[in-house]
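Sharing a chain and its predicted structure for anyone who wants a worked example. Both blocks are below, sequence first, tokens second.
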Amino acid sequence: MQHGSGVVVTGMACLCAAGDTPAAVLDGLQNGRRGLVAASVLDSRALPYPFFGLDEKYFPGGRKHSAQDTLTLARAVCRSALAEAALPQHLLREAGVVLGTTAGSASHFLEAYAASREDAAGQSTADSASCPCLAPCADRDDYFSANLALEMDVDARGPRLTVTDACTSGADAIGLAMDLITSGQCQCVLCGGADALSLVPHTGFARLMIYSDQPCRPFDRDRKGLNLGEGAAALVLESAEHARRRNANVLGLVLGYGNASDAHHFTAPHPEGRGLASAIRSALRQAGLAAADIAFVNAHGTSTLENDRVEGRLLRTMLPGVPVWASKGGTGHTLGAAGALEAVLTLEALRCGTVPASPGFSSVDPEIGFAPTQSPLPAVLPCALSTSLGFGGGNAALVMGRARP
């Protein structure tokens, strides 16, 4: 029996290499379009790995190669989501803002590193008082949501939170927004995630040797690693009663959320996926659903050897027979945006009644034992699961639902 959280989606938007609206991205994935670009987007000649990057038109005035790029993407999708939700200003003033990012202020690491090298060489006497780039990066990220709200002039005065939880950040932002509503602290929350390309995660993934020099192939036998992407996604969540009172158009439902830690390793998932299993159970429990009620899973599916092996085996065991869709073969890994982007795409697939094929997949890995979607499938059941895994052992799961007639 379906219960859920009583939280509805009244606006949503996304932007990534595969498209700049939920419908465009889904259409691109269904038709095999892959937005892979050359590594020249970043000054990374020594690391010539391809990216799923955005056209420069999405960065008015050009890329800044700073936190401003992430903020630019976040502002774009938040404006679109708010426009679709059509919230009156007096209701928007009470709204909360919860956004996730991982690389949102990563450029400050580079600034701090450069300054510290100069200092060590006796060429600079910069300190945290005279050089703001040496201030803790957490301080910068802490203002991400507030700065966004202020720059957009939306005058949102409710709770604001910034989630920096590696690659589960976007999903966790949605889950925390849902919690703010179900606890009665807010009636409406703007939430999502954003990350632009940055040299910090780029060089980090290269050092970990989990990059692929070819288009990524989630869950495929011959996968070599991930491709970095960039993008943003935003949702306007409201309590069902709040949306009903203002006669809002409901696009979908957020039925359940789970979060759990592996407590295992800094970069590798637990071999048996115990944190992910716990997160999935929590999300299904809150939604009042069983595995048999799930139309499909939008999997994290990074195309790395360990992630796909662990996640794939667990999904096969916990949700036997449920179709698994892996979308990163068409979007790349958008880091802090990924969980939010995939939640939006999950809702869009439910609305359209179709689960797209998984870009890049061709051969079953015997160590995983199943194939993700290889051609579009009907999404008959009204609910779907979206999973996210992150460095540090973070795991998140969201149960999304089709809007009720």
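Comments welcome. The first strand starts at residue 7 and ends at 16.
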